[in-house]
Design brief:
Blueprint (H helix, E strand, L loop, with lengths): L5 E5 L4 H12 L3 E6 L2 H11 L3 E5 L7 H12 L3 E6 L14 H29 L2 E6 L12 H20 L5 E7 L3 E2 L2 H5 L5 H4 L4 E2 H14 L3 E3 L2 H12 L2 H12 L3
Parallel strand pairs: 1-2, 1-4, 2-3, 4-5, 5-6, 6-9, 7-8
Helix pairs in contact: 1-8, 3-4, 4-5
Length: 257
């Protein structure tokens, strides 16, 4: 068995997750690629060469996180780095959106992330070595009319990650939350927000740049990293602006230009 350390990346079939997998592989990690599109994962694994394992799993299925953990145990894989990058988003008024779609967003963004962390963290603590990188969003800092459930799930990711990062401060395990702003990752098209002001008023960030910022912050053990100077300023302004006004601005940005 390889003596190299292993990183597991969910949402590895496209966008930020794919770039995280590529960068971690270049850094010398064996990578476990998890996503529902097994064909895309196998294509990525082939491009990375040896040290890449594919686990096809639809994390909107409540049984999927346990199946992933069971597969790791069966293969004898010890995960040193867990990257929870898989994410879903549904645009539109909450009252009009399909319930199943909204619940899938919660299942992937919150439940699967929490369960995978719960299942893989104890072994890291026992080894006194491990890193967790949870991908949230600048959406975590304010309510998001027009994508209410998505924004709320990212607020959960940020709060949960900061809390357990503090709990784990003396264990040798670190937890980092990556908060990207609008990113050219394919997410906008799938979520139906590509024509919103959020994505049209300025050019989205490159997904590889976002991934690199996340990995560098994780290596340093930083708890939260917001990608981009403009996004850092906006996150600060959100804290200083009346909540009602923040919500109105967020709604305006979610609307089409």
């Amino acid at each position: 068995m390889s003596q190299r350390k292993t990183a597991l990346i969910t949402g590895a079939s496209s966008g930020i997750g794919r770039d995280l997998a590529r960068l971690l592989s270049r850094d010398g990690y064996d990578v476990v690629l998890v996503a529902r599109s097994e064909a895309k994962l196998r294509e990525l694994a082939a491009s990375l060469g040896t040290g890449a394992t594919v686990i096809g799993a639809d994390l909107s299925d409540p049984a999927a996180p346990r199946r992933v953990a069971d597969e790791l145990a069966r293969k004898g894989v010890a995960v040193e780095v867990l990257v929870n990058c898989a994410g879903l988003g549904v645009a539109g008024p909450f009252v009009e959106n399909d319930l199943a779609g909204e619940l899938a967003v919660i299942q992937v963004n919150i439940v699967a992330l929490t369960e995978l962390t719960k299942r893989l963290l104890p072994a890291m603590v026992a080894r006194r070595s491990g890193r967790i990188l949870n991908v949230a969003s600048t959406a975590a800092f304010q309510p998001g009319p027009g994508m209410a459930v998505y924004y709320a799930t990212k607020a959960y990711v940020l709060s949960f990650s900061e809390a357990i990062a503090d709990e784990l401060r003396h264990t040798g395990v670190t937890v980092t939350t990556l908060c990207p702003g609008p990113t050219d990752s394919g997410f906008a098209a799938v979520a139906g927000v590509g024509a919103s002001r959020l994505f049209t008023l300025s050019a989205p960030a490159r997904s590889e740049d976002v991934a690199r910022a996340g990995i560098e912050a994780m290596k340093r053990g930083r708890r939260v990293v917001i990608h981009g100077a403009k996004n850092n300023v906006l996150a600060l302004l959100v804290r200083l602006t009346p909540r009602r006004l923040v919500t109105v601005i967020a709604r305006t940005l979610q609307e089409r230009a």
